[in-house]
Structure formats: structure tokens, C-alpha cells
Specification:
The protein is α+β, with helices and mostly antiparallel strands. The chain has one domain: Endonuclease/exonuclease/phosphatase (Deoxyribonuclease I, Chain A), CATH 3.60.10. 25% of the residues lie in helices and 28% in strands. The chain has eight helices and twelve strands. Strands 2-3-1-12-11-10 form a six-stranded mixed beta sheet. Strands 4-5-6-7-9-8 form a six-stranded mixed beta sheet. The protein is globular, with a radius of gyration of 17 Å.
């Protein structure tokens, strides 16, 4: 499915989360045949992040400690020419009264520290991936009923707002300030896609100077309607980075 989508859309960068495959089993060859560089870190059956890029990646770092020892299969950072990309798979959190939820909030706090110590909001930085948080009421299918649930909880919104204040613009909402739009539909809900019962938890955020150069952003729902799909689909943003260069960045799949 990913190879077919790459053939169709040909993004300059594709960020993947929840790859669920150890490094020795990552399917490098098919992507390299399509002239993509592969940067990845994973583990069997859990987590996993990857970046496929047409440009050669530099300054590759995994995890909060840059070595990959701490959350290396949930966070990868790299630079392609002048563009910095941070691809994350934020913990899901399980339930608001669980230790895993506390861990999720702590994880987002650590990520805020990560950006503040390693980057400047004046740089062209993209933060993308599965945030496992729907920021606004229009990002969930039923905000009243879902209020306080995992993925749409005030504590998560607060943690995400701190990160945003550091210097990020939600690129999708820059181009689509109103209206419901989703990237994730739970398998446990029958016919969730056709019924419009989804969440927008996959995001492409950019620092202000980079967001100003964004030309468009959209969600490709078609892959979610295919046979045996991921429960997530692709979100895409286009940036005009120079007179001659338009860069298309996409996030999500597989899972």
C-alpha cells in the first residue's frame, strides 16, 4: 500500500510511525528502488519510526538522548539541506486514570524540552507524526461525548498547547481553519470512515517562517478505504522552499 501511494504521490519526505518491525527486517530495498533514503529505528511488534526521503539525511538522531537509548523507537530527528524534521510516535496513554497516561504527559513535557534545547523557532523545523491527541473540537467526531477521553483530554490539550507556544503552526489548519477532518478511524467502530466517526491525531506542524511557505495541506482518505488498511491515513503538506524547489512532506501509515 505504501509503495503504491509513493508511486502515485511521490512526496519528497514520508514519515512513518508505529512500523512495528525490528531494524533487521525493515524493507529497505523496495524504497531504495524508488530512490528514497531510509532512516529508521524499530522493534518487533511495537512502536517504530521511519523517514523516507529523496534528499540525503544528515544529523540523524534517535530518542531524547540522541543515541536511541531513550525512546529511540518513538522519535527520530534529521536534517535535509536546511530543513529540520522531527518525526514522533507519541504514546497513546491507554486511559486517563492510568500510569501510561501520566507517562504520555511526561513524554510531551520532555519533547517540549527537546525542542527548546536543540532548536530555535526561527529555524525551518517540521514536527510531524502521530501525536495521539486531537487538539480542537472539530478534530473529533463527537467532542461533547469524547471530552475527557484519551486523545481528547484537557491535560493532553494543555501539554500540546505548551509545545505549540514554543513556535509551531498547525499547517493543516492554516489551510483549513474550519470543518471536521480526520486521519484516524477506530477499527472497533463499524463503518467508521463512511459514518464520519474519526479523529485528527496525525499532524504536520511547522515553525512560523516555514509555515508561511506552505502552499497547501490535505488528508488523503482513500488508503483508509482500501482492503485491510491501516486505521490511520496520510496527511500531506506542500512547501515552497526556494524559487526552484517545492517540497512535499507526508506523515503516517502504517499501524
Amino acid at each position: 500500500m505504501i509503495l503504491a501511494w509513493l508511486e502515485k504521490e511521490a512526496p519528497d519526505v514520508l514519515c512513518l510511525q508505529e512500523t512495528k518491525v525490528q531494524d533487521s527486517d525493515f524493507p529497505v530495498a523496495p524504497f531504495e528502488e524508488k530512490e528514497y533514503h531510509c532512516t529508521y529505528r524499530g522493534e518487533k511488534s511495537y512502536n517504530g519510526v521511519a523517514v523516507l526521503s529523496k534528499g540525503a539525511p544528515q544529523e540523524i538522531r534517535f530518542g531524547f538522548d540522541d543515541s536511541g537509548e531513550t525512546e529511540g523507537t518513538r522519535l527520530v530527528s534529521l536534517r535535509i539541506e536546511d530543513l529540520h524534521i522531527v518525526n514522533t510516535y507519541v504514546p497513546q496513554g491507554q486511559a486517563p486514570d492510568s500510569e501510561k497516561f501520566r507517562y504520555k504527559l511526561d513524554w510531551l513535557t520532555r519533547l517540549d524540552e527537546y525542542f527548546r534545547t536543540r532548536f530555535s523557532a526561527a529555524l525551518p523545523v517540521i514536527w510531524t507524526g502521530d501525536f495521539n491527541v486531537a487538539p480542537e473540537p472539530m478534530d473529533v467526531y463527537d467532542p461533547e461525548r469524547l471530552a475527557g477521553s484519551i486523545g481528547y483530554h484537557p491535560a493532553e490539550h494543555h501539554a500540546l498547547s505548551i509545545l505549540k507556544k514554543w513556535g509551531f503552526v498547525d499547517v493543516f489548519r492554516k489551510h483549513h481553519p474550519e470543518g471536521k477532518a480526520f486521519t484516524f478511524w477506530d477499527y472497533r467502530i463499524p463503518n467508521a470512515v463512511k459514518r464520519g466517526l474519526g479523529w485528527r491525531i496525525d499532524h504536520i506542524w511547522a515553525t512560523p517562517s516555514l509555515a508561511e511557505k506552505s502552499l497547501s495541506a490535505w488528508i488523503d482518505k482513500d488508503p483508509r478505504l482500501m482492503e485491510r488498511p491501516s486505521d490511520h491515513t496520510f496527511i500531506v503538506a506542500e512547501f515552497d522552499l526556494s524559487v526552484e524547489q517545492v517540497t512535499r512532506v507526508s506523515a503516517r501509515m502504517p499501524s
